[in-house]
Amino acid sequence: QVELRESGGGLVQAGGSLRLSCAGSVGSFSHYALGWFRQAPGKEREFVAATSWSSSGSIFYADDVKGRFTISRDNAKSTVYLQMNNLKPEDTAVYYCAARWLLPQSQLRQGLEYDNWGQGTQVTVSS
Question: According to the model, what pLDDT value does residue 57 have?
């Protein structure tokens, strides 16, 4: 089991930027698939971005964040990041990071396949 802790959330105006971080309790993230998900009030949790553990380093984004958000990872620091630019009010949500050992690339978008979750960090974008 991996403990994950997000940080970096906050209140920002539309068009602004935030960088979320998620630190894990393991020595290295090198064999973990890592994802970011979010949940807005009254809505279901949705996929935001994910990065594969494999050497290909495949990255996937939800369509509505593509071109604005960037996921990256530092395996040695056991940390995954989510750089969020040009934020919109509809990006307001609690953001969660997730991890799963050797999760296949085909399942990276599926929240139910992750077995380690952080406590979440609130992102609020004002108009």
Answer: 79
Q: Which tokens in the block code for residue 15?
A: 């068009």
Longest dimension (CA), the chain: 40
Selection from 91, 95, 90 nearest residue 20 by Cα = 95
Residue 124: burial class (beta carbons within 10 Å; 0-12, 13-18, 19+): middle
- Report the mean per-residue pLDDT for the chain: 96
What's the token pair of residue 11?
């209140």
Q: What angle do CA 67, 71, 73 make, to 5 degrees?
A: 155
Is pLDDT at 92 greater than 80 in this prediction? yes
Query: Quick check: 54 pLDDT over 90?
Result: no
Q: Which residues of 76-100 are buried (b: 16+ CB within 10 A; e: fewer)?
A: eebbbbbebeebeeebbbbbbbbbb
